[in-house]
Write a structure and sequence with these properties.
With 203 residues, the protein is an all-alpha fold. The protein folds into 2 domains: 115 residues, Rna Polymerase Sigma Factor, Chain: A (Orthogonal Bundle), CATH 1.10.1740.10; 86 residues, Arc Repressor Mutant, subunit A, CATH 1.10.10.10. It has 9 helices and no strands. Helix 2 packs across helix 3, helix 3 packs across helix 4 and helix 4 packs across helix 5.
């Protein structure tokens, strides 16, 4: 067997072994890593919402979030050959690229704007009743107003945690923080948000 083909097959097996082999997204990623660039559309479909949500946590409008999300996937596609399953899950690697894309943008602008996306966002139920819609909008507005008052590092960590759905260990690897520190930041951030919302400070 060709050496390069053997390496590709090994990479694919390694990736699937550390992810749920029944997960269609994991299977698609494995195909991409193995050299099937045509399967990348599946990676885009599988991860777009999470990547966009994380970036929306950190930037000031939807249009900018769209642009940075597109940049992220362009970088992911260009660097697929650099992904090493032995160094961690694909999602953590990809969110590292997303985080760098956002940081690069803000560094170039020499500013750090912020307008968070509510982290409790779920796929909306079809045709919710008006009262439910109004309550949801009020809670979202209150949460957004409270999140704005948190420091940038806390917002970044909470974005990776709740939008990116990364573990504390994965967040620690991306941010250079200790895993225990990540846990503390998440805990304190939630406590601060809860207190602000209970006290009405987010209104």
């Amino acid at each position: 067997m060709d050496t390069s083909l053997t390496q590709e097959v090994t990479v694919q097996k390694d990736f699937v072994a550390e992810n749920n082999p029944e997960d269609p997204v994991a299977q698609i990623v494995a195909r991409c890593v193995a050299g099937d660039r045509g399967a990348f559309v599946g990676v885009f479909d599988g991860y777009f919402k999470r990547v966009f949500a994380y970036i929306r946590y950190r930037c000031d409008d939807d249009a900018l979030a769209d642009d940075l999300t597109a940049q992220t996937f362009e970088r992911v596609l260009a660097r697929l050959g650099d992904y090493d399953p032995a160094r961690g899950p694909f999602a953590a690697w990809m969110f590292g690229i997303a985080r760098n894309a956002v940081n690069d943008h803000f560094r170039a602008k020499r500013r750090f704007p912020w307008l968070p996306l509510d982290w409790f966002q779920q796929d909306a139920a079809p045709d919710p009743d008006p009262e439910t819609t109004l309550i949801g909008q009020e809670m979202e507005a209150e949460l957004v107003a409270s999140l704005v008052k948190l420091d940038r590092r806390t917002r970044d960590v909470l974005g990776l945690k709740f939008a990116g759905d990364l573990t504390n260990r994965e967040i620690a690897a991306l941010t250079g923080l200790k895993e225990s520190n990540v846990g503390v930041i998440v805990f304190r951030g939630i406590q601060k948000l809860r207190k602000m919302m209970e006290d009405g400070d987010g209104r």
